[in-house]
Write a structure and sequence with these properties.
Helix content: 25-40%
Largest sheet: 5 strands, mixed
Distance between the termini: 34 Å
Strand order of the largest sheet: 18-17-19-14-20
Number of helices: 18
Radius of gyration: 24 Å
Shape: globular
Oligomer: single chain
Number of strands: 23
């Protein structure tokens, strides 16, 4: 049964929190071992829960889940900076101490760890390992492996793992199967973040350079799936481990049902779609609503052999669009960024590219009560922002909304406003070319991965619009390896960005927008923003046990990001669309966080037609 807390927090999407719920949420954590932990209050599932609420514990085992990726891969290690591994690998082949219930804003339950204990202020967290926890080679998971994993990933791993390590004061063994992390900052979320770090086998890496591994060695994990076979840039097959140690855990009932999960790689989305139609793939996610309505009329669909399934969620919109690299002087002025946003004629592009079937993102957390209002800041939001008011750019305090065009190709009104802003920022047109005071022409390129046909369609139209301002823009496409390498080293002018959020945003926001990412390679701060007010809002989010303060801090952060004009947003993915063969089945229940990688394939199954 779901607790009062869970029902209330799931209702965040509707935007209502009663005083009674707020009181319940503020219950302090007790220093005693528990089966789970939540960001606020108690976890929804009781100690004797049978399965996740969106899993079918009676799902049969067997069959294959065959999906497609665009681009390629040149590594089997998803935890290092070097190379590009299939993105699904780290979610399917590796486990952490705790596992997430995606039907709550943010709650974890024991996976490799049987229990979790925290200090009264969550200044430390202690995990007790399960005695039966094993790596896929049959060796036990030890406290030594856990400590090595935290330290190695935090110092030598991908940038996504380094933020936590910097906030850990000590990691120590406190018992035969116990490990304690003590933090050096007041941050309530760190106890949960720590529970989600992947655990790798220390002994595997003796005498090996973890940072330079690629195809030569794949990290050994503990998850239900292990790498079976692969062909670089072509395919990767994972097989279900029949000796998986955790198959009887409540968290794993109705999970990992396929004997095989295979990823096939293609040059672009159009080829991938044709592969699905031809039966090379048996499942495909479709991100274009217009294609969903028009491109799936092939014979297998008509016969009923292919099913089109739609899933809604209660998540924030996140941000999807084109991001400007403000490390470059040409994008440093907010007036220039606003002018470039005005030139992005979304209403016209949406009609041409998607048949006007997608709704535009209006802010980073739009679609939920975590999203900003577009009027002047007030209440707790204004109070949180007030100390930084003098340093905030126009729109943060006063209110900001994305420009809307008249829907025609010429977009005259917005282009006139753009020209005025560019002139104020020191740019002027002469002989059809926009130049600054030094006579330098305004030129830039838009970096995209090969195969991103829809993104390129938006970019191509955008280039034509920019030309009317005297700006020479080009679209540059490259293979996945170069694309990710250049994003990781910030070697781009403008590129695409996608950041998905849950109902419990937290420390990951520092990775996305924190000042360390301005210069530190491999961070996810693509725009290079360095705004102390944003970091203060993130600190307020993760440091409070009051959900009202949390919500106000997220709304304030949303204002800073949206009015910052760092990203030109395109459309939201509020509905997940998955085409699949009729033999692929899924539970009726969908978690509040939607049908992401945690839903398909983990809780789907294969059922032969009678």
């Amino acid at each position: 049964m779901r607790s009062v807390f869970f029902r209330a927090l799931a209702g965040i999407c509707g935007g209502f929190l009663s005083l009674g719920v707020v009181t319940a949420l503020a219950i302090p954590a007790q220093a005693e071992p528990r089966h789970g932990i939540a960001m606020y209050g108690a976890p929804a599932l009781p100690p004797d829960f049978v399965s996740l609420p969106y899993a079918n514990p009676n799902a049969p085992k067997g069959g294959s889940f065959v999906t497609g990726n665009t681009g390629g891969f040149d590594s089997l290690n998803p935890f290092v900076r070097k190379g590009t591994a299939p993105w699904q690998l780290r979610f399917l082949a590796y486990e952490s101490l705790m596992g997430r219930n995606w039907d709550e804003p943010f709650a974890l339950y024991g996976l490799l760890a049987e229990s979790v204990e925290v200090g009264n202020q969550r200044e430390w967290v202690e995990f007790t390992l399960r005695e039966e926890a094993r790596f896929s080679d049959g060796s036990p998971v030890t406290v030594e492996d856990v400590i090595w994993s935290y330290e190695t990933l935090g110092t030598e791993g991908h940038a996504r793992y380094r933020g936590l390590h910097a906030q850990i004061e000590t990691i120590e063994q406190t018992g035969p199967r116990k490990v304690r992390l003590t933090f050096n900052v007041a941050n309530r979320e760190l106890a949960l973040v720590a529970g989600l770090r992947p655990i790798l086998k220390k002994a595997q890496w003796e005498g090996k350079d973890f940072t330079r591994s690629g195809f030569d060695v794949a990290p050994i994990g503990t998850a239900p799936y292990v790498i079976d076979s692969y062909e670089p840039n072509r395919s990767l097959s994972l097989k279900r481990n029949p000796n998986y140690w955790g198959k009887n855990l409540p968290l794993m009932q109705g999970v990992a049902n396929f004997d095989e999960i295979r990823m096939e790689f293609f040059g672009d989305e159009s080829v991938l779609l044709e592969a699905f139609k031809a039966g090379v793939l048996n499942v495909k996610r479709e991100y274009n609503a217009n294609k969903w309505n028009t491109a799936y009329t092939f014979p297998a669909r008509t016969r009923g052999d292919v099913v089109l399934s739609e899933f809604s969620d209660g998540k924030p919109s996140g941000i999807t669009g084109f991001v400007m690299n403000t490390r470059l002087p040409k994008f440093a002025d907010w007036r220039v960024r606003e002018a470039l946003t005005l030139a992005f004629n979304f209403e016209y592009m949406n009609e041409v590219v998607t048949g006007n079937s997608q709704s535009r993102i209006t802010s980073y957390f739009s679609g939920t009560s975590l999203g900003m209002s577009h009027t002047a800041a007030e209440g707790q939001v204004a109070q949180l922002l007030a100390p930084f008011a003098d340093s905030l750019i126009p729109g943060v305090m006063e209110g900001y909304a994305l420009p809307v065009s008249d829907g025609t190709k010429r977009n005259r009104k917005n282009l006139r406003r753009a020209i005025k802003l560019l002139e104020e920022a020191g740019w002027s047109a002469a002989d059809g070319t926009l130049r600054n005071a030094e006579g330098e022409a305004f030129t830039f390129s838009i970096l995209l991965p090969l195969g991103a046909s829809e993104l390129k369609a938006f970019a191509d139209i955008y280039v034509q619009s920019l030309a009317r301002l005297g700006i020479e823009a080009t679209v540059e496409t490259t293979d996945n390896a170069q694309y990710f390498a250049r994003q990781g080293s910030y070697d781009f002018d403008m590129t695409d960005i996608r950041r998905g959020f849950t109902l419990s945003p937290g420390n990951e926001q520092t990775t996305y927008w924190g000042a360390r990412g301005v210069d530190e390679p491999g961070s996810r701060n693509l725009m290079g923003m360095n705004v102390p007010a944003a970091e203060a809002m993130i600190k307020a989010m993760v440091g409070t046990d009051d959900p009202e303060v949390f919500t106000a801090a997220v709304r304030a952060l949303d204002r800073i990001l949206t009015a910052g004009r760092y990203v030109i947003p395109t459309y939201a993915f509020g509905t997940t669309r998955i085409a699949h063969v009729k033999e692929l089945k899924h539970p009726d229940a969908v978690p509040v966080n939607g049908a992401g990688y945690w839903y398909a394939p983990p809780v789907w199954w294969f059922e032969e037609a009678r």
